[in-house]
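Journal club prep, notes for RB
We'll compare a predicted complex against what the paper describes. Inputs for the NDP case:
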Amino acid sequence: MRVLVGGGSGFVGRELTRLLRDKGHEVTVISRQPGPGKITWSELESNGLPPCEGAVNLAGENLMNPLRWWNESYKKDLFSSRIDTTKALSQAIAASPSPPHSWVLVSGVACYKPSLTAQYTEDSEWTPFDLLSKLVREWEAAAQLPEDTAKSTRQVVIRPGAVLGRDGGAMKQMMLPFWLGLGGTLGSGRQPFPWIHVSDLAGIIAHSLEPAADAPRPSPQVLNGVAPALNTNYEFTKELGRILRRPTIFPVPGFVMNTLMGSERAVVLTQGQKVIPKRTLESGFQFKYPDLTSALTQIVGS
Ligand code: NDP
């Protein structure tokens, strides 16, 4: 299968590319920069969709970019980098004389309202309640294909929690303070911490790209990209400290996180949602890292 991966040069994209190539598939990355095995977003817009059987979008300005202050220009980039690239791909798919059989968008769990008690599956109803949930609504809407294309292309939206892996995402920024014995819970620590190992997220994307036995449907199939273990920030912190054999006695109060990161962004760490991968499990996907111990042991040992 030939697969086009928007943002395929990033943390999740590199893992996905490795997995797809190992399975014998051909990958072309869509990037802002030209290079071998890549096309640029402007080439996609001017030349149309290259021949492919699967398409994925992973592009987006990093929400946890430590080098950027939380201001209007950053927020604008978070929106446009996701929505414009997703629209460019869905429009190219719709305009293609031979559209791919699968189109996968990776969005996020920020659509579910943080709560200490509520549990969310893919069937949970939601309406935007803050900046990030508004982003998810617009992002997922940008992926929607017109009705006639949706008859031949299966649309899938995967909503991951924090993606854990050695080479990027939250772990890359957390490893050093934890190694130095400066790790601790964030906020109260009681908030849920939905997470997934990067290898499992790549696996769910690859699984979604496979041609399905059932006919494509007009609205996208949603899959929660989270490990089935429901953990809190406290459990995550203690387990990482235990595996690294380091103390985790320096909690970071919520107001410090809000000041450093901006409260609209800090919410992804200081609050959280209990997210259940109900349809992901029903689809037959088997997690390699279903619990924190197996995931963190692999990451720390790698
Ligand atoms: P990365 O931060 O690694 O970025 C992916 C790619 O996006 C980059 O390699 C880059 O490709 C492209 N990109 C970055 N900034 C911009 C920009 N301003 N405009 C256009 N393209 C840009 O992302 P991840 O791999 O960590 O995540 C993939 C997707 O999953 C993202 O959309 C993210 O929001 C979502 N997600 C990630 C989570 C995580 O914990 N990592 C959690 C939940 C959701 P290039 O330089 O080649 O153009």
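Talking point for the session: Residues 12 and 205 are 10 Å apart (CA to CA).
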